[in-house]
Structure formats: C-alpha cells, structure tokens
Design brief:
Elements lengths: L13 H15 L5 H16 L12 H11 L6 H15 L3 H7 L28 H6 L3 H5 L3 H4 L9 H8 L2 H9 L14 H7 L3 H9 L21 H7 L2
Length: 243
C-alpha cells in the first residue's frame, strides 16, 4: 500500500476531489491495465463503503475474486485515507487530470459505474469456463438464449443482473430477450442502480427505449439519490428520461 506524503497535501475538499477523480476515471478506463483499475477499484470501495464486508466470490468467478482481494487488501484503511490514495493515484496516472476534468463536458456527477473495471478487453477464457455473465458481456445472443432460467436469474458479486450488464454494454437484442423472459426491469444492484442507470450513463439510447417500453422506472434513485437522468451527460438521453 502506498505511503501518503504529508508534505504534498491535496488541495480543496477531499470528498469533492475524490468524486471528481472517480468521475474522470471513466474517461480513462479503456486505456488502463487491469492492475491499475484494480488499484482504483479497491480504494473507491474502501472510500465509499469502508472495509470489505462481502463474502469472497466463488472459485470460478475469477474477476470477482480479483476485485474482492483488492478491496480486502485495504484492511482497516480509513475512508479519508482511501480517498487520498485514490486522488494520489490519479495524479500519478495523469498529472494534468484536474485541468482535463474541469474542461470535460458535464461530468459533475460522482456516480461511477461498478462495471468500469470490466471495460477492458475480456480476458482470454476457455468457453467451458465461461458463465452467463461472460456470454452477455461478449454479446453472444445464441449462448444467452440457451441459458436455463436459474442462470438468467443470477446476480454477480455487486448485485448486478444479466440485464444490468447487457444495458451497460448496449446489447439491445439481449436486453430485449431478457425482458421477454420476465426479468425484473427495475432490479437494483448493491449500489441501488437499475439497468436504466447503466444505459443512461453509457448513452445507449435504443437500450433505454427498450427498457422504458418494458416498464423501466426512471424515477428510481440509487444509493447516492440519483435518478437515471442524473447519471446521463447527453441531452437526448436526459430528454428521454425526463420525468
């Protein structure tokens, strides 16, 4: 765990600085290696939830175990120090991040997709080791349609359903199929986010339309009190979700 340099204080309000860095990370997620994303993930969870308080994922949930182990390694690190380490790591990653974040369009929300860690290209995994979430992330419609009912109803370590993941990735055909199988369109993950929150954050207009047509509720608030509209940056998305 990195040492904090007291001689290099972080300017401004720590929580505001942390939220700004967390929002800016979304613009970098596709360019960062897995170990760096895990570094940020662990400190984000520690800063927002405190010490790891969930059970270790199952043996075959490789990505889930990586995330759990990274968070667990934070031990009893205080939320404030986790925020400091997060911001310091952002400075090391991009020394000009504050200037860039300020100039970014929108981005004032501190809402961060749980799936940010997963936006890297998928690991090379043998088909026999893949699960229902892998098939959804890969947009493998045929495999998803062959899933048993119990597999369709599974949730990952963050409480996300297959519908959350399909909405996050913008896989419209899978979203529609899952809804036709009567999956709960308004199911909330451990952060209180619905599939609409994910689709809105990613600006997937067609997916948003499908979710709304199947009863998606744009008034549901997540754990931070944000409705899907408030997680969106695009004007068209906000207009579609206006309540």
């Amino acid at each position: 765990m990195e040492d904090l340099d007291d001689s290099d204080p972080i300017e401004g309000d720590m929580e505001a600085q942390f939220n700004k860095a967390a929002a800016y990370l979304q613009t970098l997620a596709n360019t960062l290696p897995q170990d760096k994303l895990l570094h940020f993930y662990a400190r984000y969870k520690q800063a927002t939830e405190g010490p790891c308080n969930i059970s270790k994922p199952g043996f075959f949930d490789f990505k889930g175990k990586q995330k759990w182990e990274a968070w667990k390694s934070m031990g009893d690190l205080s939320k404030e120090n986790a925020m400091k380490e997060y911001v310091n790591a952002m400075r090391e990653t991009d020394p000009e991040w504050e200037l860039k974040a300020t100039s970014e369009k929108g981005g004032s929300s501190s809402w961060v997709r749980v799936s940010t860690l997963q936006q890297q290209p998928e690991d090379i995994t043998k088909d026999e080791e893949k699960n229902s979430f892998d098939w959804v992330k890969e947009n493998n419609v045929e495999k998803v349609k062959n899933l048993q009912r119990g597999e369709m109803m599974e949730k990952d370590e963050n409480g996300m359903t297959l519908l959350h993941w399909a909405a996050d990735r913008g896989h419209q055909e899978i979203v529609k199929y899952l809804l036709e199988q009567k999956l709960d369109v308004n199911a909330q993950d451990s952060e209180g986010q619905t599939a609409l929150h994910f689709a809105a954050s990613c600006s997937h207009l067609e997916v948003i339309r499908v979710l709304l047509d199947h009863g998606g509720d744009p008034t549901i608030q997540d754990a931070d009190g944000l409705q899907p509209e408030e997680c969106a940056e695009e004007t068209d998305v906000k207009r579609m979700l206006k309540t």
